């Protein structure tokens, strides 16, 4: 008999709580090191914990499996930021679950458009209905904060 790997199911997506700031910071550091996320201090995560949705890894000692920030930018726009899934948790549907819940949260903010920026291939975003956009289409303050040296591309989804 060939052994079959059994993956433990991930916990449900939940809003981050103030006590999650350290875990959000730690998960993000991996992606900062690879250039996929901008470096932000722990205080950033403490101040913005309420914007985040997360999933915990149910494996013993698992920590966070993934997170995404959803910020209401007003005028019908929301942005997704700091979207990351732990390397060992990728390919298990965690990104899709986080993205679905993030879009629901944006709807709850009465957003009609959701923007994000990525340095990666954007396959997950495209699969979930995002399309390339020009930074000028996005909320001005958010677009102005994008670092052109990182080569981020902007995507938008209409809700």
For the secondary structure, the number of strands is 7
Main sheet record:
7 strands, mixed
Q: Give the H and E element order.
A: EHHEEEHEHEHE
Overall, the morphology is globular
Residues in helix, %? 25-40%
The end-to-end distance, rounded to whole angstroms, is 48 Å
Largest sheet strand order: 1-2-3-4-5-7-6
Low-confidence stretches: 1-6
Mean pLDDT reading:
92
Q: Specify Rg, calculated over alpha carbons.
A: 16 Å
Structural class: alpha+beta
**Beta-strand percentage range:** 25-35%
Tally of alpha and pi helices: 5
List keywords for this structure.
26% strand, single chain, 7-stranded mixed β-sheet, 28% helix, alpha+beta, 5 helices, disordered N terminus, 159 residues, globular
Kindly summarize this structure in a few lines.
This protein is α+β, with helices and mostly antiparallel strands and 159 residues long. It is built from five helices and seven strands, in the order E-H-H-E-E-E-H-E-H-E-H-E. It has a seven-stranded mixed beta sheet.
Descriptive notes:
By secondary structure, the chain is α+β, with helices and mostly antiparallel strands. It has five helices and seven strands. Strand 2 (52-56) and strand 3 (64-74) form a beta hairpin.
């Amino acid at each position: 008999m060939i052994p079959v790997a059994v993956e433990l199911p991930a916990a449900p997506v939940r809003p981050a709580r103030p006590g999650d700031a350290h875990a959000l910071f730690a998960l993000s550091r991996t992606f900062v090191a690879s250039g996929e996320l901008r470096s932000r201090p722990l205080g950033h995560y403490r101040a913005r914990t309420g914007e985040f949705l997360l999933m915990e890894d149910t494996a013993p000692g698992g920590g966070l499996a993934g997170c995404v920030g959803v910020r209401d930018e007003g005028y019908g726009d929301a942005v997704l930021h700091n979207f990351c899934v732990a390397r060992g948790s990728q390919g298990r549907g965690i990104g899709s679950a986080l993205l679905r819940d993030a879009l629901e949260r944006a709807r709850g903010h009465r957003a009609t458009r959701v923007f994000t920026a990525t340095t990666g291939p954007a396959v997950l975003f495209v699969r979930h209905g995002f399309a390339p956009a020009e930074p000028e289409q996005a909320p001005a303050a958010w677009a102005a904060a994008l670092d052109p040296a990182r080569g981020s591309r902007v995507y938008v989804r209409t809700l």
